[in-house]
Amino acid sequence: MQLVKQPFSTNCTLEKYYRLSLPLVGFNVEKVQYKNVIFTVWDVGGQEKLRPLWRHYFNNTDGLIYVVDSLDRERIGRAKAEFQAIINDPFMLNSAILVFANKQDMKGAMTPMEVCEGLGLFDLKNRKWHIQGTCALRGDGLYEGLDWLSGTLKEMRAAGYSSVGTSSF
């Protein structure tokens, strides 16, 4: 899971984003520039013992990039529960949501539509969201997803959306 916060300034390449897509211990914080939008990316990982700490990073979050292992059909229910808990936190209610349905190159992977259904994306009301099939190792779909996110964040900022909410913790 990556939480996208902006604005900040630095000059990074998308190559760093690929590295953020790999499994990690703990969390990483990096700045990534893409099409004149500068993201501060907090990759907080998926380890269960770290999940209670996620909510401490939600304040002022403009967008969420949620990466799903499309091969892991057995845990899509768990992914949905975690996803729903994140997006329903009061600090996340105004955040744009980008879901990367990763490992689309693998035989037996859920399609982006199946991941949509598995996460309950079609049930979201008054939320800006997008799902993008990806293969992080080859970079397939990453640019398309970031195109959507950067454009959506610019539109939201121009419309006066605020990522500030009140937390339930």
UniProtKB/TrEMBL annotation:
Main location: Golgi
InterPro entries: P-loop_NTPase, Small_GTP-bd, Small_GTPase_ARF, Small_GTPase_ARF/SAR
GO cellular component, one term: Golgi apparatus
Residues at which GTP binds: G46, N102, K103, Q104, D105
Keywords, in A-Z order: ER-Golgi transport, Golgi apparatus, GTP-binding, Lipoprotein, Myristate, Nucleotide-binding, Protein transport, Transport
Protein's cellular compartments: Golgi apparatus
Keyword Thylakoid annotated: no
GO annotation (BP), single: protein transport
Family: Belongs to the small GTPase superfamily. Arf family.
Protein name: ADP-ribosylation factor
Organism annotation: Eucalyptus grandis (Flooded gum)
Lineage: Eukaryota, Viridiplantae, Streptophyta, Embryophyta, Tracheophyta
